[in-house]
Design a protein that fits this description.
184 residues; 8-stranded antiparallel β-barrel; 2 helices
């Protein structure tokens, strides 16, 4: 509840600042991949909606963990019930700031890092994520690939399958962001 209020107040703070250009995701895709000896584990979530302020370089991403989709229903069930415990930890959030200067009015590709707080599975951790922001005709195209250690977020792997699941999970986020128009 506090997190939702924070994101809402942050969003409206952006809107009040007349110099701020707010970008919201028109589309977003978050995937994760874990190499496993028996079978690789992969899932995709297309429900996330990042929001970004060009004037402050702040970005917020909120992902509903229950919307990760797997090839196999049993994997999805294990993910939700045993690993992410989505009934208890429904969302993963990231609130951060782009460290480099980006000209959001000039077409081009910018290599960036974003430092902020990842809140996953009830654990908050400061991380720095590499990525690119491509500006093209007023749109932003974000891409980031990074890894997280399950142990850092108290995600336990049952000993029965422990050797079959990687300790590091590769995460990729791609998003197309368009300027937010409050009149829409």
């Amino acid at each position: 509840m506090k997190r939702n209020l924070f994101l809402t107040s942050l969003f409206f703070t952006f809107l009040v600042n007349s110099h701020a250009q707010i970008y919201m995701a028109d589309s977003c895709r978050v995937t994760f991949f874990s190499a496993a000896t028996i079978e690789d584990i992969a899932a995709v979530n297309t429900i996330a909606k990042p929001i970004m302020s060009a004037s402050t370089n702040e970005i917020d991403v909120k992902i509903n963990n229950q919307f990760f989709k797997f090839k196999k229903e049993l994997m999805e069930e294990h993910f939700n019930e045993e690993y992410m415990e989505t009934a208890k930890y429904q969302y993963t959030t990231f609130t951060g700031k782009v460290n480099e200067t980006v000209d959001y009015h000039q077409d081009g590709t910018n290599q960036v890092t974003v430092t902020g707080t990842m809140d996953m599975h009830g654990v908050k951790k400061t991380i720095t994520i590499p990525g690119t922001i491509t500006v093209k005709k007023g749109l932003l195209f974000l891409k980031s690939t990074f890894s997280v250690k399950l142990a850092d977020y108290n995600i336990k792997i049952p000993s029965v399958v422990g050797s079959d699941i990687a300790e590091d999970i590769a995460i990729t986020l791609t998003a197309t962001m368009k300027p937010f128009n409050a009149k829409q």
